[in-house]
Specification:
- With 664 residues, this protein is of the alpha+beta class.
- It has four domains: 156 residues, Jelly Rolls, CATH 2.60.120; 79 residues, Immunoglobulins (Immunoglobulin-like, Sandwich); 274 residues, TIM Barrel (Alpha-Beta Barrel), CATH 3.20.20; 81 residues, Golgi alpha-mannosidase II (Immunoglobulin-like).
- It is built from twelve helices and 42 strands.
- The longest helix is centred in the N-terminal third of the chain and has 37 residues.
- The chain is elongated, with a radius of gyration of 32 Å.
- Bound molecules: alpha-D-galactopyranose.
Length: 664
Amino acid sequence: MTKKQNMGKHNQKTKSLRKLFLLATLSLIVLFSFMFYACKKTNVVYLDELGAEHIISGWSEAKANKSIAGNPLTIAGQVFERGLGTHATSQYRIKLDGQAVKFHAVVGIDDEIKKNKRGAERASVEFIVSGRDKNNLKKTLWKSGVMKAGDPARKVNVSLKNLISLDLIVTDAEDGHAYDHADWCEARIEYRGNKPEPVKPYAAEPYILTPPPAPEPKINSPKVFGVRPGSPFLFTIAATGERPMTFAAEGLPRGLKLNSSTGRITGFVDKPGTYKVKLIAKNKLGKAEKTLRIEVGDKIALTPPMGWNSWNCWGCSVTDENVRQSARAMVEKGLINYGWTYINIDDCWHGQRDPKTGEIRSNEKFPDMKALADYVHSLGLKIGLYTDCGPKTCAGYEGSEGHEEQDIMTYAKWGYDYVKIDWCHCEGKDPRATYKIFGDAIKRAPRDIVFSICNWGLQNPWEWGESVGGNLWRTTGDIEDSWSSMAGIGFGQAGLSKYAGPGHWNDPDMLVVGKVGWGPQLRPSRLTPDEQYTHISLWCLLSAPLLIGCPIEQIDDFTLNLLTNAEVLEVDQDPLGRQGDRVTKGDDYEVWSKEMEDGSRAVGLFNLDPYEPKIVRVDFSTIGLENGPFRVRDLWRQKDLGNFSNYFEAEVAPHGVVLIRIFP
Ligand code: GLA
């Protein structure tokens, strides 16, 4: 074989080897791509498989494969087997890993609300799908626009490329959340990497911020008190500190006397005028003084009423004994020492009218309304009750229609100090004229009766409530123990501050802390501890009437801590009576400020994000404070934080608050 032949053979060999190598590489590439593809193949998770436990729902609890009320998911006649039933305002965060592909769903208002006429008219929501990328930047992916009851379902198909979380949101379309039953049907995520996981909203264990009261005397009563000339006077000096304690009052107007061991001032003052009285509280450790301005004139409730109401706990099951127990506990647990005063019976005490005189009587659960009032007064507290403008109350008991003046006079005869007048069965009446009948009667009554208008904000009672004699008026529908309800109402008060002042208050409804239930079965409030701090802080900034809605005798330490912080309550009870208002609103935070009589500002830094803490900042120029530095005090902790110029910022817990007071 020649050398040339040999070379040719060698070349051929190399060529076929190369071919083989190429083929092998190609097959490997195909194999690897196949394997890669196989690993990365798209999976699908239906959101109902993840459960509904971590969905934030504005009412009740969200459900998998059922509507919020537990019926088959149904939108405009179309029934869906799979999906999530929730209620506005609702939020659901799902963790992704950047490799999720798509989100699909069919959304709408559930047909179940059409069974109710008001529901069919009032339900409206907006579905929003948004996500966050690796830099935590929020992107809105899809919006349904406003959807109403009966609207055909709308389809969502959005890409989830590069997102690390997905948020499914249902808003109340800015008209309140009543009847907003919202369905995410056939909701599913296509993904390649890790399976999407629900994110749990943040909920701390209950934590106590209010320091225990000092053993030395401290007077916590508001600085001003109004009474009409000749009306029976009852003012209990609210003071913390070790007992025994003795009280004194210098400069009391003629007609008043003080019981030095109970601290109760009673009597009658005939002469109108302003009286400055020095209150003194003494125990073995020291002495406290405070000036009380007594205004004898035509105005009462010069600071927002503080007390208890039976509705949010006992609902219609309330009895005389429930009322007595809360009254007793108000004293025994020391709440009276912080200014808590009124014990109010809500709906369901009425019986039949006397067939001859038409006078109202109580039902068998309330054997003797006068005896009950006497008992509550004997504790140094005041007592209130409830009625309705219509022929029946909301719960179907005897209303006051046609007996307005007579009923007010009966309440006065029994010794009641407060009346809440509801608006059920009053459709078609003019609220202003209707409430004026009661207001006029209250003016003629032989005792001071705080007049609470409860028509749920219909026809803007803040514009006429005071002129018909109202001391407070509900600005919204009924509160519930959900973030959506509480925050919706509370933050929804923005802009109403100009209508409030001493003797006339906006009422964002009663407190939902402690045990609630609206009936015999009670449960702890569904608000998280941070949400409860937000609730009390916001209500105090709003100069809101503070009516505790839980049985006081069952109160736990955390709830007691919320209701006995003298520096926080002082914000509510400030004698200037200027309601706070919103200063700044961000995507997920708000800053509210309230001007205090001494020129300081009470400021709430609120974090509206349910999942993550957030730094919230107040610029002093936005709350009318120039030329710092200013002393900043944390009111819940009752601790100075230092002096700050220009601004203050703090990290705020999810759905929580930092409540500060800034002193010029
Ligand atoms: C209405 C009121 C509530 C409560 C109930 C009683 O709903 O708004 O605060 O008084 O009636 O039935």
